[in-house]
# Entry
Amino acid sequence: MKQSSFFTELAGEREYCSDQLRLARLAAGKSFVDLGKALGVTRQYAHKLENNAFPSTEQISQLAELLNVSEVFFFGTRKRPIEMDQCHFRSLRSSTQTVKKMIMAQVEMFEDNILSLLDVEIEFPEVRIKDIGDLDLTSTSTVESVAESFRRDLGVGIGPISNIVRLAESVGCLVMNLSDADEKVDAFSIFNKRPLIVRNTRKLSPCRLRFDIAHEIGHLIMHRGIETGCRQTEEQANKFASALLMPRSSFSSEFPRMRGRNLNWDALEELKVRWGVSLKAIIYRAGKLGLISPDKVKTAYTYLNRSGQIRGEERGDGRIIRESPEMIQRAIETLDGYASEKLLRESGLTRGLIKERYLLHFPEPSLKLV
# Structure
């Protein structure tokens, strides 16, 4: 197969990097058997390509097509492999090792092959996420104070946060989509050069999506350098998200009165729509603040579960706008045609992969070289 002059020139200057093949394979969720079938070789030989064997020019082309990258991708350098202890996974324990590796590889490809190149061209907002030091996060009041301080530093006040994704982006935390994420993984965050939150586009509930973003902000503030995923760190992030989205003073004053001995579900739906949080999160918060008894919390959860609202669609969901990341796409649209094509070429990723996996659109060039 004839190679482009750019590929030939690049291949002559750089060596094939087996780490790049491994990264692309993991991100695509492919096995050595899949590689072997695509190349017409054994699984053992496919494994060698990630160790000490060098693929032929034809095999490079076949691998690029299979893994949805350009041929030059395999002649790059893997910069910073993401380690498990750097990551904050929501629902980590219920996910398989294969799923975790795939998501980490997809995020690494995005961070090193798109975000790092964008960062050269675009000035993103300054990171304004403070290091809280060695606070005792086992105390609920401490976590509450951390969330209140975060609101106060941003001048948000004590009312509802209209758009939690924009709030995260305003403090220098980039939010990205990931369409391939397994349903067992709600969200993911990492803090390298700048904080990055990954949202699972399979999650349809607008309220739970907002809570996931707030949860990850909590991890980024409270658990920098701490391995998360255990019950304690997840509970701390949940408490932070509740306090951030539903400040105790204002939320307590608006919580609807009981209808005799029963909860007022119509009023709770209105409260949900105003604050942009799920009914489950409202009940959780009300119980923690002592607005309703533990028995009422249990009864409310039973009602939500029996009516299919714990995991399915809740009443009022259709009245809440689903939030989406904006900053990364706006950064791409800021580039002129030359810079956009240069970034795309240097990334080694295809337009199709970027659009399908990350839901980002690189504009087609208005002119093509003949």
